[in-house]
What we know:
The chain has one domain (2-62). 89% of the residues lie in helices and 0% in strands. It contains three helices and no strands.
Amino acid sequence: MTKQLNSYMTDDQFGQLLSVLQDINKSIKKLHQSYDLGDVCSHLDDVESAVKDVKSAVEKLER
């Protein structure tokens, strides 16, 4: 999968994508540690926003 992505993007773009995915992972870990519903919703919003960013970036690469 990494080789496929590298053929579509520069190392810098790949690094940015990796960073976003790591942020998503951190948000999900925080989600597991949250018991307050407000915190859970906030973390879910962070994950949703990051996923939209990744989807948008991938769509741009496919064009």
